[in-house]
């Protein structure tokens, strides 16, 4: 039986507890939160879970095998470090840390102690993204040369994080999962809300190897909620729309072609192809439940999880460099530091 403690029971914590409670072979021993009203409500739903506002109660409990950290990003590093030093495996919410030095230290510590360090990049575990990866890697789209990402909504404005760390984290993690390579350069611009001292709108241009260009638009100041990625390939095009209830992926047999006839080089000979639209079947499963099962599998089997600490580091690096680019007005080169 794997015994887990959950730190934080605010917005996302109840979802974490609900899903881990359904995983066979798992017992949630503790929920720790600073809000006394929250702690009083937990036993009404989960009578066997112990509650506390004292972190030392959790970290000193030798029966706890793993800790799930569902607290604000600024606290991730200190809590994850303390958990690993307390001989516990760690699952931490995205982003793994606020900076690459912190991410590097956690990664090194987990390796040295042989503890599982995993990041909850939930989208990676959704059936739609699993299907998307299968399509991309099958070559159906051909060589992908451009991805246009839009992730917008109204709020929630935050004082301890900017829109890049809040929303672009999803696009960077998905692209990392699809292609498995870090970018070469990152250029970002945007709007800073003076009252918050944080960026609330950002446009991020990212160049990856093999001439892949990615553009991300993220915003807390949009009247509509959008979660869309458009893939342009040499063979076909694809739209992934997470807002869609059932038709999240659409494959378009559309494109352009250019003549290779040197005799016609003085003319612009372009052919446009407009074929059928294919909507693949996608299984229904909550991504968070699949993520919870993956963490349990990794801990029990002592195997590297799908969204491990190394992936978490790469994503944090992208977020950090995009923010640096926005604030400096410069294009930032991505260097390998792990």
Automatic annotation (TrEMBL):
Q: Which residues form the Gfo/Idh/MocA-like oxidoreductase N-terminal domain?
A: 2-121
Q: Which residues form the GFO/IDH/MocA-like oxidoreductase domain?
A: 130-238
* Source organism superkingdom: Bacteria
Q: Which GO terms describe its molecular function?
A: nucleotide binding
What InterPro entries does this protein map onto?
Gfo/Idh/MocA-like_OxRdtase_N, Gfo/Idh/MocA_Oxidoreductases, GFO_IDH_MocA-like_dom, NAD(P)-bd_dom_sf
Q: Which Pfam family, giving just one, matches this sequence?
A: GFO_IDH_MocA
Alphabetized SUPFAM superfamilies for the sequence: Glyceraldehyde-3-phosphate dehydrogenase-like, C-terminal domain, NAD(P)-binding Rossmann-fold domains
What's the protein called, per UniProt? Oxidoreductase
